[in-house]
Amino acid sequence: MAINKVMVIGAGQMGAGIAQVFAQAGLSVILNDLDQQALDKGIDGIKKRLERAVEKDRISEPEKNKTLDLLSGTTDMNDASNCDLVVEAVVENMDIKTKVFKSLDEITPEHAILASNTSSLPITEIAAATDRPSQVIGMHFMNPVPVMKLVEIIRAIQTSDETYQAIEDLTKKINKSPVEVEDFPGFVSNRILMPMINEAIYTVHEGVASPEDVDTVMKLGMNHPMGPLTLADFIGLDTCLYIMEVLHEGFGDSKYRPCPLLRKYVKAGWLGKKSGRGFYSYE
Ligand code: CAA
């Protein structure tokens, strides 16, 4: 199936990054957000990143302009009526996601594929909220989207082989590397990453080492580009806690118990980089 026109729902950090990589690969992209201000911020961010890429000689000025010509913004989800694919990147809340998917099921043409960028919610349950479950799939991009090569492609129990193949082909077309994953809590990425971050938080909580030293061990000892606590601040501590809760509940195994210090930071509003304070200060 040819995918030429895409809508991305949610103009936050992930949604804007996803819209950018689609447009850079030559697809026509509509970025959607309920909030005009969020939409403007998302599109502004894309423009700035492309300008920087021109300055660094990674892309030419005409390439930048071509990408921007392929990109438009809307606050009206009904504009998805002629899209071949919609990728949802809204807040991690099942009620909101199922509402979005139910609306998209009514708005989009019969052949359209509906994908979610959820980092942990069950694609199978999202698919079941639509009348086209075989055309629902997970496309889990990594942050920062323009830089990270991986897309986890998550097959709901209902996802058809045709849908999977179309999304795998598309992932390659946008110069990313697909990995096929079955729909289980945390998929592969967060099932491995989040317990590591949680364990790093336990080592701080138990006074084993300072956040700086924990990060140094993992950077210099394991060659990670960022230490786990810097990465946790970058992802958002609320997101980390949320994903640990999904793993804990989904597997019913105490090894996924979120660290009490992580809970305390989230309760304090210390959410990492976005709130100005997490394990580090960002003033
Ligand atoms: N958006 C777009 N581009 C970005 C960026 C962002 N937020 N942050 C950095 N970059 C780009 C920079 O512009 C730079 O490109 P240029 O050379 O063109 O300037 C390039 O990335 C390298 O950046 P820096 O030199 O500033 O810094 P760095 O070498 O430390 O790299 C990093 C930054 C790529 C983020 C690197 O630290 C890294 O790989 N960190 C780990 C990221 C990671 O683990 N991501 C997965 C998070 S988990 C997830 O996303 C899943 C989930 O569900 C929670």
From TrEMBL:
NAD(+) binds at G10, A11, G12, Q13, M14, G15, D33, E92, K97, S119, N143, K274. Pfam families: 3HCDH, 3HCDH_N. Gene3D superfamilies: N-(1-d-carboxylethyl)-l-norvaline Dehydrogenase, domain 2, NAD(P)-binding Rossmann-like Domain. GO terms for biological process: butyrate metabolic process. Pathway: Lipid metabolism; butanoate metabolism. Transmembrane segments: none annotated. Residues 5-183 form the 3-hydroxyacyl-CoA dehydrogenase NAD binding domain. This is 3-hydroxybutyryl-CoA dehydrogenase. The gene is hbd.
